[in-house]
Automatic annotation (TrEMBL):
Radical SAM core domain boundaries: 142-371
UniProt cofactor note: Binds 2 [4Fe-4S] clusters. One cluster is coordinated with 3 cysteines and an exchangeable S-adenosyl-L-methionine.
Protein's name according to its UniProt entry: tRNA-2-methylthio-N(6)-dimethylallyladenosine synthase
Primary residence: cytoplasm
Keyword Iron-sulfur recorded: yes
Binding site for [4Fe-4S] cluster 2: 156, 160, 163
Alphabetic keyword roster: 4Fe-4S, Cytoplasm, Iron, Iron-sulfur, Metal-binding, S-adenosyl-L-methionine, Transferase, tRNA processing
NCBIfam families from the UniProt entry: miaB-methiolase (TIGR01574), MiaB/RimO family radical SAM methylthiotransferase (TIGR00089)
Catalysed reactions, semicolon-separated: N(6)-dimethylallyladenosine(37) in tRNA + (sulfur carrier)-SH + AH2 + 2 S-adenosyl-L-methionine = 2-methylsulfanyl-N(6)-dimethylallyladenosine(37) in tRNA + (sulfur carrier)-H + 5'-deoxyadenosine + L-methionine + A + S-adenosyl-L-homocysteine + 2 H(+)
Boundaries of every MTTase N-terminal domain copy: 3-119
Gene name for this UniProt entry: miaB
TRAM domain residues: 374-437
Protein species of origin: Selenomonas infelix ATCC 43532
Subunit note: Monomer.
InterPro entries in the cross-refs: Elp3/MiaA/NifB-like_rSAM, Methylthiotransferase, Methylthiotransferase_CS, Methylthiotransferase_N, Methylthiotransferase_N_sf, MiaB_methiolase, rSAM, rSAM_horseshoe
């Protein structure tokens, strides 16, 4: 063993997937995982900067690790991910106990850089944004035992005016379909039965290499022998095509859950956000999804407090929410990201107003989620057992194909099993039930 490592991950699933590839490299280089930062030889934070709160958390951790490094000066401490990309060597100026800063396009360089620092003890900053080449065949140390994250593309071309992601993740690059299918096959051979295909906007998959579009890719993955569940995120409403909806409908293992972030419910704000679709276009696409897939769950992301948002806009947003009836929604307070167009827009909304609107939105959505789940009382659903519930070890937690969490008392089944569960107590965020044989 060469030493011990600890990786902390913030942000989205893409960051988890990247961290699994960094972890794979460290294991390949002879490092072993530890849960305790005090005994680690390498600590890495894979960071997120999508909102200010995400960055604040990371700065807090960087401060904590300063004390650990004082006690263990040999510790190699690095920052990777989106904040590393955004801040570069600023991070080191602010916190000189950082040994390396690794950009989002440099995941594949981790093992080499750690070895370099071990040998030479001089700091390294590499935040060159990724070019068109995609590093393939990286070792992956997956966190889950039955569910695997599989990135299908990197970057984003959409430049929504509030969002930092295109600046820190670069232009869209799609992996070759045969690479993705090969990765899914390997995962299945290792015992994984569920895969989630990841991208900032999966519907744009393949627009760069034209070897397959997202619908084609979904079909290929669906046909991999042994796969039980195929999930994907995130879909952008602007290009969710009929072909894609039909592929989901005709697929065998493609889960009936579509995360389709609307972000806002008024045309004026959607335009200012550069989301490219209108409320009418979104409504038409959502209706097409619901007609083709009546049992599908539809979830969304919403931002309140975008610059210039008025009471009228917000009233439209609430009305749209009531109309759409999402199964669930992630709701965010708009966070100003410097360098994005929205950061310099006039009429920034005050914190008090933002919070009041967020509360009103959450209250509305919670009532909707509750009512939708209530209709599942008495239903029998296929659940994949994911592990013990956090609050009660005698209770299993699992998920339906529609991505709803189900809690039920232990029987003879094991983690990773697929079971039929009768829903007896639907709640706002979880469904409680009992297993039926
Ligand atoms: N590519 C995905 C999501 C990327 S970030 C998509 O387009 O849907 C995840 C979510 O964070 C976004 O959907 C958006 O709702 C939210 N978000 C992004 N930038 C934000 C900001 N500046 N302030 C608040 N929320 C933001
Ligand atoms: Fe950000 Fe928009 Fe790209 Fe999503 S689609 S990552 S919100 S710029
Ligand atoms: Fe955050 Fe980067 Fe994901 S900014 S949300 S970790 S793409």
């Amino acid at each position: 063993m060469r030493g011990r490592y600890k990786i902390l991950v913030y942000g989205c699933q893409m960051n988890i997937a990247d961290a699994e590839r960094m972890e794979g490299q460290l294991q390949g280089a002879g490092y072993e995982r530890t849960e305790e930062m005090e005994t680690a030889d390498v600590i890495l934070i894979n960071t997120c900067c999508v909102r200010e709160t995400a960055e604040d958390k990371v700065y807090g951790k960087i401060g904590e690790i300063k004390k650990i490094k004082e006690k263990n000066p040999k510790l190699i401490f690095g920052i990777a991910g989106c904040m590393a990309q955004k801040e570069g060597d600023n991070l080191m100026r602010r916190a000189p106990h950082i040994d390396f800063v690794l950009g989002t396009g440099k995941v594949q360089e981790l093992a080499r850089i750690v070895a370099e620092i071990e040998a030479e003890h001089s700091p390294v900053v590499d935040v060159t944004l990724a070019d068109k080449t995609i590093a393939e065949n990286l070792p992956v140390a997956r966190g889950g035992k039955f569910s695997a994250w599989v990135p299908i593309m990197y970057g984003c071309n959409n430049y929504c005016t509030y969002c930092i992601v295109p600046y820190v993740r670069g232009r869209e690059r799609s992996r070759a379909p045969e690479e993705i299918v090969a990765e899914v096959r390997r995962a299945v051979a290792e015992g994984y039965t569920e895969v989630t295909l990841l991208g900032q906007n999966v519907n744009s998959y393949g627009k760069d290499h034209k070897q397959a579009d997202f619908a084609d890719l979904l079909r290929m993955v669906d046909e991999v022998e042994g796969i039980r569940r195929v999930r994907f995120m995130t879909s952008h409403p602007k290009d969710i095509s009929d072909k894609l909806i039909d592929t989901i409908k005709n697929g065998q293992h493609i889960c009936e859950h579509i995360h389709l972030p609307v972000q806002y419910g008024s045309n004026r704000i959607l335009k200012a956000m550069n989301r490219v679709y209108t409320v009418e276009k979104y409504r038409e696409r959502a209706q097409r999804v619901r007609e083709a897939l009546p049992n599908a769950s539809l979830t969304t992301d919403l931002i309140v407090g975008f610059p210039g948002e008025t009471d009228e806009d917000f009233a439209e947003m609430l009305a749209f929410l009531r109309e759409m009836r999402y199964d669930s929604a992630y709701t965010f307070l708009y966070s100003k990201r410097s360098g994005t167009p929205a950061a310099t827009m006039e009429c920034q909304v005050s914190d008090d107003v933002k919070h009041a609107r967020l509360n009103a939105l959450m209250e509305e959505q919670n009532a909707i989620s509750r009512a939708i789940n209530d209709r599942l009382r008495g239903a029998t659903l296929e659940v994949m057992v994911e592990g013990a519930s956090k609050n009660d070890p005698t209770v299993w937690s699992g998920r339906t194909r529609t991505n709803k969490i189900v809690l039920f008392p232990h029987g003879a089944e094991c983690e990773g099993d697929f079971v039929q569960v009768k829903i007896t107590q639907p709640q706002t965020w979880v469904l409680k039930g009992e297993i039926i044989s």
